[in-house]
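This section describes the prediction task in plain terms. A model, or a person checking by hand, is given the sequence of a single protein chain and must write out its three-dimensional structure as a string of tokens. No templates, partner chains or ligands are provided. The sample shown here is typical of the held-out split.
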Amino acid sequence: MDKRYWVDDEEFTLNYNRMKLRFNEDSYNEVAFAARKNLEFMCKNMLIVLTDRLPQAEEIVCENLDTQIDFILWCREISESDSHILHMIRKSSNQGVHGTTDRITRQSAEDIMELSRQALLIYYRFMERYEIEVIPELYATLTGKDLWKVKIKLTFRRFFRFMSRMSKKRHFWLVFIFVIMLISSIIDLVVFSINKVIHGDPDTVVESFEKDYKEGNWDKIYDLCQLNDDTEENRFLTKKAFATSMESSKMKLSIDYGSNDGSDSTKHYEYSATLDESIEVTILVDWKDGKFKITDINGMVYTEFITLPEVPGVTLYVDGTKVGEIKEDLEMFSGEHQVSFSDDTMFEKKSYVFSTSAPDDLNSEIKYSETSINACISTLKKTVPVIVKCNLEDKNVGYVSDYFSSYEEAEDNRRNLVNVSENTKDVGKFHFLKCEYLPDYYDDVTKGIPILVSGTVKCKTRLMNVYNDEEENISSLVNMIKKGDKWVIDDVVRY
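The expected answer:
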């Protein structure tokens, strides 16, 4: 492109600055004339560039493109400014110049307005054709939109144009995905660092845990250990049981804060600790839900599988949780627990404490109450005479089966009180000699209450078709258990 089609950069800038100066000196018509001539020249040459697609047009035109557009916008500004025109009209009137100057001033403003509008459109077409970045002020003036909205729109346009050009290049999308992932990681790291300052670091979280441990806030520590009692197998792993276990152990917690094994990049930290300087514990801290949290504690909680005694006639509760029929392989926290009963009058104490290391000790520790022992003795004083009489008179076992724990036990054990006889009649009243509790006979609550029963009964026994007066002596150890709401015979041994 021949430079004769274009204004020299230095000369144009010099003329532009001179116009501004003259305008400020109130030489409006003179400046308007010069501006109009420059706008006409610029429009004419730009149309040649657009029409003929002259070589090197972009390079030459863009030498002072910003200055040219700034000049066009300035011309538009002074032509739109009523205050400037009115000022010039008033000044001319004060100098004795009347209607002619008024018309010249307004006509100059209208000419410049129209020429600047045409120039903006032509320059916009030029920039679109040669894919030159559009100046926001030019686009805002053309569209009448707010400048800040225009800047946002042009920024997005530049981005999509760039993406369109780059997408044609080899491996672009791999690079693009990598960059997005990198930016995402950086943003995530920045947010993480800010939240770390706001919410504290991992040490703060562990210090809070240590404080809860020392103060005995077992509910909080239970939740941190990721424990639950939602299933049938875990029904004894309750908060109450955990608190009882931890209180009974009273182990000293020591945390080594210098042992922190983790980093900000992984957002995962591990702290080493000990209980009573012997049991190793690991505290896991992770970045979760926008802050640091203890996600697990390994080694603090130990459980054991134990078997509880099968105590007849009563339901067991461990730390308030019902045991049920199955007493074997029950998982509980290591340490001490409390067992209670559905009938709190049946034993000497309403509850007993046992350790998971020796649950069998309960068999000997649980003692039947005086109330239970007296109830058994009272029952036997009523039932033994009936059983003896039925045996001697050879009556059906059904007469006495309700006095035993089962029909089978009645068949097997009634003879251990007195033999069944077909040759006996006129059975008299049973006379008790003894009916007393034998506490030292066996030390096992599962077997029931041992009662020694002894006495005599008079009757007639047939021998060679002759009935003779006899006295049957009875001495047996009767084992009593509770079935439902009554005491029954579970076993009878000759004593």
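For orientation: Confidence is low (pLDDT under 50) at residues 1-6, 88-104.
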